[in-house]
Design goal:
This protein is 71% helix and 0% strand. By secondary structure, it is an all-alpha fold. It has 2 domains: 175 residues, no CATH class; 53 residues, no CATH class. α1 runs parallel beside α3. The longest helix has 31 residues. The chain is globular and about 60 Å long.
Amino acid sequence: MENRTSPVVFTRAGFWRGVQQALPAVIGITPFGLVAGITGQGVGLSLGEITLMSATVYAGASQLVALSIWSHPPHLLAVTFAAFVVNLRLALMGPVLSPWLDKFRGWRVWLSLFLMVDHNWAFSVREMNAGYRDAAYLLGGGSMLYIAWVFTTAAGHLMGSALHLPPGHPLFFAALAAFVAVLAQMWRGLGDLLPWVVAIVVAVVMAQILPGTFWYIVAGAIAGSITGGVRDHRRRQRA
């Protein structure tokens, strides 16, 4: 273990350590990648398009949300904004690693942040808190997961093409089911009940006001986020 007072470095050894320790997480994301690929094929995206989406967006939860509300023609603003709201949590996760990332500038920081997802972020926080001082660990883990995600979504698209599933097949519900599975892991107890209920109620009301659109997802996400933010602010004031 490195000394906590030693300088933060960015080395090949740290990079490969991150790659190796991310390998078990690859097994975990594989089903989600396959589901995203199959769903992409089901909504009419080509192999190149779903691969490009995974390579540029690289965010499993937001991709699953985007694909679950995809239409022809797609409501690009609604899809983009829904994905943006889902990914807002990353803006809160990044600063946690500032003891590592603040020591560097340029491509090391930007590439590390682009490749940061829940898995390698959690691994990196654990390593940082244990006194590990090599910031390339985050980049290594993210690179491994990035390759796996792009590959598995492409594989899922090929599987969907081979199966020739008709529109509306129950398997396409897997995207929504996978996202619900991810969402369930975010439940922290009864303290989360109010923002969740607000999000649900607003989404249901908006679905009645604007039937046939996907703005209810955006409205519910914004309402729930604002409610959660106000709740957390009041808790800090009382503390």
